Fold this sequence. Notes:
Layout: E1 10-13, E2 19-23, H1 28-40, E3 44-48, H2 54-65, E4 69-73, E5 76-80, E6 94-95, H3 100-111, E7 116-120, H4 123-126, H5 131-139, E8 143-148, E9 151-157, E10 166-168, H6 174-184, E11 190-195, H7 202-209, E12 213-218, E13 224-229, E14 238-240, H8 245-257, E15 262-269, H9 276-283, E16 287-296, E17 299-307, E18 315-316, H10 328-336, E19 340-345, H11 357-367, E20 371-374, E21 378-383, E22 397-398, H12 404-413, E23 421-423, H13 436-442, E24 446-447
Parallel strand pairs: 2-15, 3-14, 6-7, 10-11, 18-19, 22-23
Antiparallel strand pairs: 1-23, 1-24, 3-5, 4-5, 7-9, 8-9, 11-13, 12-13, 15-17, 16-17, 19-21, 20-21
Helix pairs in contact: 1-2, 1-3, 1-7, 2-3, 3-6, 5-6, 8-10, 8-12, 10-11, 10-12
The structure holds shikimate-3-phosphate.
Shikimate-3-phosphate binds near residues 174, 200 and 349.
Amino acid sequence: MSHGSGPRPATARKSADLRGSIRIPGDKSISHRALMLGGLASGETRITGLLQGADVLATGRAMQAMGARIRKEADTFIVDGVGNGALLAPEAPLDFGNAGTGCRLAMGLAGVYDFETTFLGDASLGRRPMARVLEPLREMGTQVRAAAGDRLPVTLRGPKTPAPITYRVPVASAQVKSALLLAGLNAPGITTVIEPVMTRDHTERMLEAFGAALSVETDVSGVRTIRLDGRGKLTGQEIDVPGDPSSAAFPLVAALIVPGSDITITNVLMNPTRTGLILTLKEMGGDIEVIGSRQVGGEDVADLRVRHSELSGVTVPEERAASMIDEYPALAIAAAFAEGNTVMAGLDELRVKESDRLAAIAAGLKRNGVDCEEGASSLVVRGRRDGKGLGSAAGATVNTHLDHRIAMSFLIFGLASEHPVTVDDVSMVATSFPEFMHLMTSLGARIA
Ligand code: S3P
């Protein structure tokens, strides 16, 4: 994918029943972490199922720039790590493109080393707040130079000996938690991260698998205390990356809203910190059958059989937000084709994703005839099952603001609405789900 090749618009049209079986590519969160821990650990890490999206490839290049060797043999990525504590100073700035996860986690990983690292990104990443990671890194002794407040480009220089700290994560963010744990790997003693709201726990799981001395305690109110003893040895592992539930969200919602559909999505990660959307869609009346539940590489995985359903609006509990934070754009599309109101609250974090997703969703829905109300941190959508009058006969375009999930969500919308839906740019889809167009059209979706 090239950011420089100009925007590529696409249009989705009302489609007949979606049918068939598709395998979802690797989970983005796990793929980033596999390359980072593989690149850091001693010995060889073999990764199958790695997501080969632009975001993850940027992380791979960053790890190579810091000394890891990465090669591909058939479907396996083989990473030769440098050994914990032994990253090399990169000779050039690390460019993370559109990838917030890669950038923030790498800031933790490299930012506590006694060398300079500069972090760059595209226009979307350049607008995203970095203070949430920079503040705890400063507490550990890292010097920070940021061009504009806490925005990229950022240059970090770690101290001779980073201080292990105790830090309560102020926002529900797996990226902040993970950045700190990765920083803690290079600090002598115990780094403690307190997480009031549980977020995706792939970093904790993978650190344990690589041999880090890590413990997790959860109190009666659900607050998690994660302790990591730094400077231990990490040993290369075999990792099989399950399919990304955040990518599965798009065919899943598409099958629910396109009449007559019956599809199977295989190899979907079912880690409970990631399944909020499935739970919510089931509450809306979605016919989603979880089949073949199994364990892959220490994670729950299953196949999903999804059939068209008569959806009804629901109120989504705020405390569920962390387990479906990337899925609100897809949920909003399901809500547009559900009878009655769907109420979503506690969405502050959506404002600082690849775009201001709350604003982008509301604007896209309105442009396509959906009655909705955007609050400071909430969204209410009043849907209609038949999609009558929805879409844009005049060809009005949805502005995706360099956001892959906004693009995919509105293309799904256009499969069920009376009129077509056009999005201004699908080039960013390649950051997380390069196979999206191909897989959707293989099911019968009319997208071009
Ligand atoms: C991610 C954490 C979430 C999520 C992002 C991936 C991760 O971000 O939105 O797509 O892999 O840790 P926040 O930590 O900002 O919530």
